[in-house]
């Protein structure tokens, strides 16, 4: 048995100082990732600093008309917020399609971004895994890899990023705001999630003791017409095989603004910029959607078991875009 000390922080500076001072310590929010992995002998903190007493639960409209979500706001709280549902439906849908009702009540937004991969080898302390133990090898590359990534992989790790809401936030150009030993920082969402490369154990650029305080979403009129499509093996309580966060604005039958991000297929929440570049200024047709999806998946690198994901992703992109545009310009040709 390993002893773990536990303390409850009442202000942000104390929480940051406590974790910074001890390299074996972790922040504890809802605990739905941290405690799971501690029990599975994957994480080994000697000290947990409970941050649930910090005043970081607000969901506010910013002066510019965007959204600021406190890192300790619960998934269910954000999904239910009227301003989120009305202005950013893709965020509410991504949250509601994740985990279970009980988990969504416990799980915080900051913890959601930092949840760990669902690769079974990562969660089995006996298996070789470069992410858990750098340099030990990757059991998934030649192992059971049906759920693994086809985009953004490396020869060192092919695990899929598991968060749903991070996919929606990626499509909306969100920023992660932090406070830490070196002061306050802001990260563009795309820079916050690191590709595995040759150091898959490094998943984000934060230093030890850096605390996510909020997630900021810029104003995005296009987001009022957005959706999250999640394809999975069963209809609830399951991670995505493929997911699509999409928002589209159509003017006179032409696409004026479009945002697309993919989940379940990549090692980080994947902004589908090729889809967006192809579609801006294009007509609302199924042919254009299908061609855009093909272009995005050109660099897919499937494993022995997950070749189906490329086709599934192409179809899911088309379906999401068709669903979003069908009601405004008649059925796409
Ligand atoms: C059975 C199951 C099914 C699930 N299904 C889904 C799903 O379908 N879709 C989905 O998106 N997610 C899913 N999840 C993941 C779940 O959403 C995450 O576990 C949860 O969001 C983590 O939040 P938490 O507050 O519990 O974080 P914790 O477990 O408390 O923390 C997670 C990590 O983040 C760190 N941390 C937490 N808050 C901060 C902060 N503010 N600043 C810096 N570090 C911090 C902790 O130290 C820890 O390392 C599932 C989880 C389970 C157990
Ligand atoms: S895919 Fe990544 S997380 Fe899974 S075993 Fe390989 S290195 Fe570990």
Automatic annotation (TrEMBL):
What is the protein name for this chain?
A: Xanthine dehydrogenase family protein subunit M
The UniProt entry, under PROSITE patterns, shows: FAD_PCMH
Residues annotated as domain FAD-binding PCMH-type: 1-222
Q: Which organism is it from?
A: Streptomyces cadmiisoli
User: Which parts of the chain are coiled coil?
Assistant: none
Does this UniProt record's set of keywords contain Isomerase?
no
Gene3D superfamilies the record matches? 3.30.465.10, CO dehydrogenase flavoprotein, C-terminal domain, Uridine Diphospho-n-acetylenolpyruvylglucosamine Reductase, domain 2
Where does the signal peptide begin and end? none
Question: A GO molecular function for this record?
Answer: FAD binding
Q: Which UniProt keywords apply?
A: Oxidoreductase
């Amino acid at each position: 048995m390993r002893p773990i000390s536990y303390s409850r922080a009442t202000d942000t500076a104390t929480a940051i100082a406590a974790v910074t001072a001890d390299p074996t310590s972790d922040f504890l929010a809802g605990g739905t990732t941290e405690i799971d992995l501690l029990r599975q002998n994957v994480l080994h903190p000697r000290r947990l600093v409970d941050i649930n007493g910090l005043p970081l639960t607000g969901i506010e409209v910013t002066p510019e008309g965007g959204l600021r979500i406190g890192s300790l706001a619960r998934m269910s709280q954000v999904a239910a917020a009227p301003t989120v549902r009305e202005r950013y439906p893709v965020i509410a849908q991504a949250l509601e399609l994740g985990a279970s009702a009980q988990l969504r009540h416990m799980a915080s937004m900051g913890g959601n971004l930092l949840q760990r991969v669902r690769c079974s080898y990562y969660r089995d302390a006996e298996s070789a895994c470069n992410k858990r133990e750098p340099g030990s090898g990757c059991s998934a590359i030649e192992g059971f890899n049906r759920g693994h990534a086809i985009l953004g992989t490396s020869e060192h790790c092919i695990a899929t990023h598991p968060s749903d809401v991070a996919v929606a936030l990626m499509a909306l150009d969100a920023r992660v705001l932090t406070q830490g030993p070196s002061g306050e920082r802001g990260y563009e969402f795309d820079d916050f999630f690191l590709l595995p490369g040759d150091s898959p154990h490094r998943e984000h650029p934060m230093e030890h003791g850096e605390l996510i305080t909020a997630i900021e979403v810029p104003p995005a009129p296009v987001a009022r017409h957005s959706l999250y499509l999640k394809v999975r093996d069963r209809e609830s309580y399951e991670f995505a095989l493929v997911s699509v966060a999409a928002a589209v604005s159509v003017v006179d039958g032409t696409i004026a603004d479009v945002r697309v991000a993919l989940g379940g297929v990549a090692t980080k929440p994947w902004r589908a910029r090729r889809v967006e570049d192809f579609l801006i200024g294009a007509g609302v047709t199924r042919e254009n959607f299908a061609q855009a999806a093909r272009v995005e998946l050109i660099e897919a690198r499937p494993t022995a078991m997950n070749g189906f994901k490329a086709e599934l992703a192409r179809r899911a992109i088309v379906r999401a875009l068709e669903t979003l545009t069908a009601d405004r310009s008649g059925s796409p040709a």
